[in-house]
Please model this.
Amino acid sequence: MAKITLDLFRYDEAVDEVPHRDRVDIEFPETSTVLDALEYAKAEVDGSITFRRSCRSAICGSCSMNINGVTGLACKTPLKSVLRKDNSVAVDPMPNFEPMKDMVVHMDPFWDKYSRLKPYLQPFDRDEDHERERRVSPEDMKKLVAVANCVMCATCYALCPVVSVDPSFAGPAAIAYAYRFIEDVRDSKRKERIGQISDDYLWLCAHCYACSYCPKHVEPQDDIIAVKRASIQEGLTDAPGPRHALVVSKTIKQSGMLNENEVIVGTVGRFNFKGLVKIMPLGLRMAMKGKVPPLFLHPVDRIDEIRTIYDTLEVPVSA
Ligand code: SF4
Ligand code: SF4
Ligand code: FES
Model:
């Protein structure tokens, strides 16, 4: 047993104007989880402490919260691994959500984005046309195994810096789930699904990899890259995001370097005169500060090696 202090975020939207913190002292085995400690504090010290949980086994996805500033599943986080020097642990609600009561948050934006995906199989034919289940080859199934582990805990969503600055962004879990259906050979709505997730600002993802801290190892950051690639393959390239990706890829293949002039014009759109006029003041300011990149770039030494990498990976470069 160890003397442990739970440093808790306390707030009830029904009565409190601002949140406050409570320090709750308990004697508890360090080998337990943060969720066990919260359960004990609620049962033995203060029954009003509020948090979501169900399975206690990292399966239901309910108990995601901020533990010493890092979002994760409380039932999967050993106390020992997070105790601070003074044997305390700070517990807060997930960021990127409005708090409702203590660690419980309003999950609606997360679920709304998930529902928009129509997260169910929409096959080419009817169930009645099949004598038995629709078979999927092991190779095709392999692509879906990781994302099938998603428990919709929203940890990744809470960690995403793009969601925090632009809440209209779908977020990593929704894009990973879009990937789950886009790559399912039984589903008939591949193009519609890619279009829908693109409309939900797929291309805002900055590839910061913060969402790689997924308690179920779904790796949504990889699924996002796959969905972006699929959107280019499906020809959905008439938007700043895909244009940017294609022109960056093209200039690096050409010279081994980023041609920033090309990237700006290519991203805005070569024939988007309104957009080009809009960025002219920026160009002028850069020119006045002597920051205009060179117009022409000579290919770097051993450019052939870079092009070989492209050819090997079959990266599309038609901007
Ligand atoms: S991808 Fe991982 S972190 Fe995100 S909701 Fe699913 S299980 Fe949770
Ligand atoms: S990789 Fe993209 S989705 Fe994941 S946290 Fe970063 S910006 Fe958000
Ligand atoms: S209680 Fe179910 S995931 Fe933690």
